[in-house]
Design brief:
The complex is a heterodimer of chains A (about 325) and B (about 375). By secondary structure, chain A is an alpha/beta fold. Helix content of chain A is about 35%, strand content about 10%. An eight-stranded mixed sheet of chain B has the order 3-2-6-7-8-9-1-10. In chain B, strands 5-4-12-11 form a four-stranded antiparallel sheet, with no helix packed on it. In chain B, a hairpin with a 5-residue loop joins strand 4 and strand 5. With about 375 residues, chain B is α+β, with helices and mostly antiparallel strands. Chain B is globular, with a radius of gyration of 22 Å. Chain B has one domain. Classes of the chains: A alpha/beta (about 325), B alpha+beta (about 375). The interface between A and B is large, with 35 and 39 residues.
């Protein structure tokens, strides 16, 4: 059963007020040199925001549309001395933890403000509503299940897994049985059908790299796909290269995908990119007995070496 | 700016005959039109049977039709190195095969106007891009006026309109005008160029019929109604006027602020109908191969990376500045107009809300 997310407007409003106060304090005391959050951008949509002065903290927002995970911006802050403030909800904290577990940002340079989250809306779907309906959704919290982000329907991490300061009471955590509905369809295909499925799918990829650039697990110092020598990925958008791009992307995040679905959400041509990621997660569960493969762990099945690995024995 | 329709060059096409018309146009020609692809609407070369499912209702295709003139991947030449009978090295170079004549069908007026902006780059000045020219001259553009501009449309900010004819050989206007709830039963097909006239003249009379006598007044009113439509974002933005203001802003800190959320993906540039930058690469082995060009993006950190390792635009600030200065200032200096037609794709597609109207607003506020 998928989880039923809840839009709790009073809770979001309280969190927003406390977030502003906390960020203002951190910036004012010099505890952080920048605070990364969201501010109101175009059309009332939250956009990533980088506050450097205490008074700028008043522009921070925390509302049903703060879908964008911010942790990836830490990679641009590696150079420099000051600490970085960052706001995360549950899935935002998984993104952050991914980057921390991959040793891509020093924990000691971070001040993490965590906010428990009962569900967020898909900004594109909300923008498509007429004005009255949008107001009813955003101000009164009357949101249909279909308006929520897809990831909220499988979220089992409403509370931040990394936080120095927690704003608001933690929410009850319940296990959500993993359902990979589209994977079953994929697995039912014959190899020939599957090849055709992927060929037809990736034919429409524009190779804009939005899926890679938004992904917290895609955090390599230099992406192999950007290299010219060796040329792993030819620049021609021909079927072989399209498959190469998507297979490398999916396999590179295998075992490290946090299932935030941002790749799918930002894809301009609407590719169902999570289908492949989900297949790999399902395999990890079945092959390695990892119940929550989307949650970063200290030692991960595809990232650890074990002396008693049965495959090691077999290879001797 | 509205040009009068060329006399005697207007026909009537009923919606139910569109498929037959497109079938008649195909054959010798490639016909590209908006069709449903995986839940989105995109430009594709029609395959047999697709003529009846062309989507003229979705206001905006995900991709622009620029790919018909500047394909995302386009072979330029083939090469083969070898040895002659005397043992001397030889190199055979052959041009890429020429493309078929094409009809670009169901293009929105903003996208049609964008083609003229590309023409200025590829066809004027000291260097004419022959491959682009060959495609352009073999392409007939059939636009379709927009009945209901989308929330993020702002063509009117650049002097265009949902019924403008710039860049189009033919414009289709829904006979029932822009105020309607369902698909029009028929379109006026108005030719604005000789190429457009020729296409209408060569179309089967069963599908493309004469406009009934006495309908001239209704035709003119209909065209005027489409051209008088406002666009939601255009109303907010007004006429874009920031080129002179940008002259002194190259080093302004606003670029740092604007660039901060940029993900460095190429979405805005690839869905944009007027972004045209490309790279050139070879694909081959053993001395034989193909040289091709491919879309590149100034938003990619590697865009200007030199072979020796130097990168003239290593910072996001510089890359973001480049994209918007190009559209709103450099192009304006060179060609006297903006490199944007207000299609709104960047507004829809940018994952972090960094788009041209936002930049125009910021610059005005400085």
């Amino acid at each position: 059963m998928p989880r039923t997310p809840v839009l709790d407007i009073p809770r979001l409003k309280t969190a927003e007020a406390r977030l502003r106060a906390e960020a203002k304090r951190l910036l004012g005391e010099g505890a952080v040199s920048v605070f990364i959050g969201h501010a109101e951008g175009w059309d009332g949509l939250p956009a990533p925001f980088f506050a450097t002065e205490p008074e700028e903290a008043d522009r921070l927002v925390w509302n049903p549309l703060v879908a964008f995970n911010l942790a990836k911006y830490l990679l641009e802050r590696l150079e420099g001395e000051g600490k970085v403030g960052l706001v995360v909800n549950g899935c935002g904290s998984l993104a952050l933890d991914r980057i921390l577990k991959d040793h891509r940002f020093p924990r000691e340079r971070l001040v993490v403000v965590g906010i428990p989250c009962s569900g967020l809306l898909d900004p594109d779907k909300v923008l498509a509503l007429d004005d009255d309906l949008r107001r009813a959704v955003l101000e009164e919290g009357r949101a249909d299940a279909a308006l929520f982000l897809k990831r909220c329907t499988w979220c089992d991490t409403p509370n931040p897994v990394v936080a120095d300061i927690l704003l608001g009471e933690p929410l009850p955590e319940e296990p959500v049985p993993a359902e990979y509905l589209r994977v079953a369809e994929l697995e039912a295909l014959t190899p020939e059908e599957r090849r055709e499925h992927f060929r037809a799918l990736y034919e429409r990829c524009l190779r804009c790299f939005a899926c890679r650039n938004v992904c917290p697990a895609c955090n390599c110092r230099e992406c192999a796909l950007d290299q010219w020598d060796p040329l792993w990925l030819g620049r021609a958008t021909v079927p072989a290269e399209q498959l190469t791009y998507h297979f490398i992307r999916a396999f590179d995040v295998a075992g490290r995908c946090i299932r935030c679905g941002e790749c799918e959400r930002v894809c301009p041509v609407g590719l169902p990119l999570m289908e492949f990621n989900d297949k790999l997660m399902k395999d990890i569960t079945e092959l390695f007995g990892v119940e929550r493969p989307h949650v970063p762990a200290e030692a991960e099945p595809l990232g650890k070496f074990a002396d008693d690995d049965p495959d090691l024995e077999a290879s001797h | 700016m509205a040009t009068s329709p060329v006399p005697n060059s207007t026909r009537l096409v009923s919606r139910s005959d569109l498929g037959a018309w497109l079938r008649a146009l195909a054959g010798e020609r490639a016909v590209l039109a908006p069709v449903a692809v995986g839940g989105k609407t995109m430009f594709r070369e029609l395959e047999a049977g697709q003529e009846d499912v062309v989507d003229l209702e979705t206001v905006r295709t995900v991709d622009s039709p620029k790919g018909a003139l500047l394909p995302q991947t386009e072979p330029l030449l083939t090469y083969a190195a070898g040895k002659g009978e005397d043992g001397a090295a030889t190199l055979k170079v052959a041009p890429a095969p020429s493309s078929r004549p094409a009809v670009l069908f169901g293009v929105r007026p903003c996208d049609a106007a964008a083609l003229e902006l590309l023409d200025k780059v590829f066809l004027t000045g000291d260097f004419v891009d022959e491959q682009y020219r060959a495609r352009r001259e073999a392409t007939t553009v059939v636009a379709v006026a927009c009945p209901a501009p989308a929330r993020t449309c702002f063509c009117t900010s650049f002097g265009l309109s949902p019924g403008s004819e710039r860049g189009a050989d033919i414009v289709l206007y829904g006979r029932s005008g822009p105020e309607r709830k369902s698909e029009p039963e028929a379109y006026y097909a108005v030719a604005y160029t000789e190429r457009g006239e020729a296409l209408l003249a060569g179309s089967p009379a069963s599908a493309v019929t004469e406009v009934p006598a006495g309908e001239d007044g209704r035709l003119e009113e209909t065209i005027l109604a489409f051209r008088s439509l406002s666009t939601p974002l255009g109303e907010r933005l007004g006429r874009v006027d920031v080129a002179p203001r940008l002259d002194g802003l190259f080093e302004h800190p606003v670029w740092e602020k604007l660039a901060a959320p940029c993900l460095g993906c190429g979405t805005c540039t690839f869905v944009c109908p007027t972004c045209y930058c490309f790279g050139v690469a070879d694909c081959g082995a053993g001395g034989k191969g193909v040289r091709f060009r491919y879309w590149d993006s100034c938003k990619f950190p590697q865009f200007l990376l030199m072979a020796a390792g130097h990168n003239p635009r290593p910072a996001k600030r510089a890359r973001t500045r480049q994209r918007f200065m190009h559209k709103l200032n450099y192009y304006h200096h060179r060609y006297g107009e903006y490199l944007c037609v207000g299609c709104g794709r960047c507004v829809d597609a940018c994952p972090v809300g960094l788009h041209l109207p936002l930049v125009v607003g910021e610059v005005r506020g400085l």
